[in-house]
Each structure stands twice: as C-alpha cells, then as structure tokens.
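Per-residue structure
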Amino acid sequence: MTVVIFNTVKRVKNIRTDYILKRELEHLLAALMPENRLALEVSLATGLRITDVLSIRTQDLKQRMSVQELKTGKKRRIYLSTELLDRMIACSGKIYVFEGRLDYRKHRTRQAVWKDIKRVASIFRLKINLAPHSVRKVYAVEQFHKAGGDLKKVQRLMNHESETVTMLYAMADELSSRSNFIKNKDS
C-alpha cells in the first residue's frame, strides 16, 4: 500500500489484521475488560463483525436470532449457546447489550474494543497486527476445519459474496504460517 502525503511517498506496512491461534487468543481474551471479552467471545462463536455484535439490542436477545449486518445490509441467523446468552443477559443494558460508556442510548464503540485488544497485545508483546477482526479469521479457520474443507459452507456462514475472500479467511492459519516461514527464512 502506498500513501501520498504532501507530495511525499511513504510505504505503509500491510494494514490487514493478522491471524492468531485460538488457544493464544483465549489467553488474550482473559486479560481484556469483561464486556470487551464477552463481545469478542460472541464474535468468535458466531463469526459476526464486532460492530454487529455491539449493536445487538437487549430486547432482541434470544438463543436463535436474526442480525442485520451493518456493512452489507444482509440478514443473518445466529445461534448463541445457553452459557453465552446468559452472560449477555447479565451484561445487557437498557437498550443495547453492550452499552456505551458515556451514554446508555448508544452502544459501545468498536474503537473501545480495538483499544482494549491493542492494550492486551502490547502487554503480551505481540508483534502482529491484532484487532477485533482477527477473531473473525479464527472463526473462519475453525469452521473450515469443522466442515472438512468445505469452502462453500464457510462462505455461507461468513455471508461472503466472493469465494476468494472466504478462502483468505478460511485459510488464514495456513497463510500465516507460510508468511512466518518466509520471514524467518529471510532473517
């Protein structure tokens, strides 16, 4: 990626979020603020983008529910485990499950979750670009392996238009390990 600022060209490192192993992610989740941890756990269980998780209204909270994705406008059916649903009910505010810090009429921002995961990644001294969207990659990889490599199934679960995009998510573990191999080889 190239950025031009006042006629100077500056190379920017790849801005895509990185993949992290699920067992490593679980350690990071344990260090997050409780509400942010829960939001990311919902994302991990459903594959929803963090903005869609944060915008779930308390009145709509059910074990099986439809969520309209903010990015695409598509409807999507999700299932929440009893344990996850109970924790969301316990956390829920007057309007949104994840209330805003300053105004209960607004939901928590994705930036708040992003800052918290960046804080924890820094504490753990991770050298990867970890963000809430990394959790969606973990979900896709997990579903890809559960489906026995059925990319079409993962595509439906992720609500992607393109099979190519789904492949980038579903094979993030493989792409990450190859990228690390190349980096280590060049060192």
Summary: Residues 19-186 form a domain with the hpI Integrase; Chain A fold (CATH 1.10.443.10).
